[in-house]
């Protein structure tokens, strides 16, 4: 049964108070309209119209269901309008991290609309964003890459429970400060774990963090992947864990945040487009800038190779392991 066509017959008959006028309004033959109404009555399990009089009347069941039928038809009409609008302009699925700033994403959507480009936001883990570009299910995506090679960098730090004086000065944190003190076995056992959000559960980053933690003397079991972000934040705000994240994400949820001193543990992002028929497709500058602001990134346009005489030793060692 074509439910929409049958509902149109029902609503038109109720509003016109007659099968003939309803058929004329819909531009179909009256016997076809009558069959659709009869089929709908069988579907709902009761008569929608009282046909015992010269002029048909809507039954109590028909009156009850009428506003719901109109709502279904209105929603279907809006769906068709959206589809027509989308066909008139390019539609691109956009893969982003789960911790993007909603206001910045809204600016990207508006900017796309102004330029005749419809963007559909999809929150995906890093590996799924990369694979989505490869298989064409995404048009654009923020892709994780090594910070020294990325167009944009996001400083990472550790979020913790709010401090008593919210205005305390921000202090750069070294991983060495988290290692257990000698002679304090009980304190060592009670030290909170360091949680990784899904956005940082990528092989190259986990390898770098593991090597940095080993150099700092942190036990391997202190670092563990987090589940859903809400649970990780709850543990963090309760003082049961430390959460590796970007500053905007921590501040948004009222956590204290301290930046990590190790710049090789920054997040690196490139904004990329799915390959076109002729190879790599270009990303509009306006879109790249807005997506970078959505993750709290700063531009890093110097390229992967440092200038002569100013080699970043820490980044080189991290890249090589």
From TrEMBL:
Keywords: DNA-binding, Transcription, Transcription regulation. Residues 300-321 are annotated as: Disordered. Pfam families: HTH_1. InterPro entries: LysR_HTH_N (IPR000847), WH-like_DNA-bd_sf (IPR036388), WH_DNA-bd_sf (IPR036390). The keyword Transferase does not apply. Gene3D superfamilies: Winged helix-like DNA-binding domain superfamily/Winged helix DNA-binding domain. This is LysR family transcriptional regulator. It comes from Streptomyces achromogenes.
């Amino acid at each position: 049964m074509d439910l929409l066509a049958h509902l149109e017959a029902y609503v038109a008959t109720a509003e016109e108070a007659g099968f003939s006028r309803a058929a004329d309004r819909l531009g179909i033959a009256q016997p076809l309209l009558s069959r659709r109404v009869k089929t709908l009555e069988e579907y709902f399990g009761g008569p929608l119209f009282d046909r015992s009089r010269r002029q048909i009347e809507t039954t109590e069941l028909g009156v009850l269901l009428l506003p719901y039928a109109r709502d279904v038809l209105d929603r279907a009409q809006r769906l068709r309008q959206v589809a027509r609008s989308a066909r008139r302009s390019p539609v691109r699925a956009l893969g982003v991290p789960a911790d993007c700033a909603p206001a910045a994403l809204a600016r990207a959507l508006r900017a796309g609309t102004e330029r005749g480009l419809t963007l559909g936001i999809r929150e995906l883990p890093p590996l799924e964003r990369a694979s989505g570009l490869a298989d064409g299910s995404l048009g654009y995506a923020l892709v994780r890459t090594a910070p020294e090679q990325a167009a944009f960098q996001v400083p990472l730090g550790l979020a913790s429970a709010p401090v008593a004086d919210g205005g305390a000065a921000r202090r750069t944190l070294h991983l060495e400060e988290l290692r257990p003190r000698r002679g304090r076995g009980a304190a060592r056992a009670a030290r909170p774990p360091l949680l990784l959000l899904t956005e940082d559960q990528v092989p190259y980053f986990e390898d770098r963090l593991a090597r940095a933690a080993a150099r700092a003397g942190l036990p391997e079991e202190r670092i563990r992947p987090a589940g859903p972000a809400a649970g990780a934040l709850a543990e963090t705000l309760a003082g049961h864990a430390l959460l590796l994240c970007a500053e905007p994400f921590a501040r948004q949820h009222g956590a204290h945040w301290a930046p990590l001193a190790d710049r090789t543990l920054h997040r690196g992002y490139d904004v990329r487009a799915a390959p076109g028929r002729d190879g790599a497709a270009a990303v509009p500058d306006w879109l790249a800038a807005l997506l970078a602001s959505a993750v709290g990134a700063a531009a890093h346009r110097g390229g992967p190779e440092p200038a002569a005489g100013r080699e970043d030793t820490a980044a080189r060692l991290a890249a090589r392991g």
